[in-house]
Amino acid sequence: METDSLLSSHETGEGFPVLMVHGWEMDRKVEELDFEPIFTKVPGFRRIYVDLPGMGTTPANNIQNLDDIYLRLVQFIDARLGKSNFLLVGTSCGGYLARALAQKYIDQVDGLMLRVPLIEPKDSLRDRDPFQPLVRNEQFMSSMSSEDRTLLGNILIQTPAYVKLLKAKFEGAFLPASGAANKEVLDPIREDPQRYQLTSLALDNSEQSKFLAPTLIVCGRHDEIETACAC
């Protein structure tokens, strides 16, 4: 892991750079857990996993809003990648930030992946369908402990194998990341719609700024937070 005045990060592999941007109050280890099993089978990529300000091992350093986080990413890219071309991956809020980065570095980003991306930052404007499990097993769900039900919340695939893997991911990745997040700084940003959004200076929706490189958008059709409709 590398720590500097910009962002803490971890690089692995050699080849074409791929910058990974995680979601809100998560950290780089969550992205590594999902992507490294894929990249270890596909050589030729230099993966760069960052911790956003106030998350993971990167200090908040007086960030006030998403624009500040975006600017820290810009500084990191300029220092670490310079004029090199690279691929860009963003998850959830990281996908929202990645859209702005793809526009700023439109001549350098050769491909973009948005995984369950945040599109509409204002909660009140998101279109969320009522929760419906994809695989229902009421008998199994009734046998779960109240602690596990509270920890995991609504479960889309109600099978023992899926729940075992989901619980392991919560305990091994999500909870440590959330616990390490600087909530004193981050929660006021998240709760303020004016601060939890990128300004037009960072995110340009004009026709002139259209991003034309290959792009993959992975939406969560049954995602209760971002949702396919909000995406």
Question: Can you offer a commentary on this structure?
Answer:
By secondary structure, this protein is an alpha/beta fold. 35% of the residues lie in helices and 14% in strands. The chain is built from seven helices and six strands, in the order ββαβαβαβααααβ. Strands 1-3-2-4-5-6 form a six-stranded mixed sheet, sandwiched between helices. β4, α3 and β5 form a beta-alpha-beta unit. The longest helix has 21 residues. The protein is globular, with a radius of gyration of 18 Å. The C terminus is likely disordered.
Strands, helices and their partners?
Layout: E1 9-12, E2 16-21, H1 28-39, E3 45-50, H2 66-80, E4 86-91, H3 93-104, E5 109-115, H4 138-143, H5 146-152, H6 160-180, H7 183-191, E6 215-218
Parallel strand pairs: 2-3, 2-4, 4-5, 5-6
Antiparallel strand pairs: 1-3
Notable traits:
231 residues; 7 helices; 35% helix; disordered C terminus; alpha/beta
Q: What's the count of strands?
A: 6
Content of β-strand: 5-15%
Give the integer mean of the pLDDT values: 90
**Through-space gap between termini:** 32 Å
Name the poorly predicted regions. Answer: 227-231
Helix/strand/pairing category: alpha/beta
Summarize the structure.
The protein is an alpha/beta fold and 231 residues long.
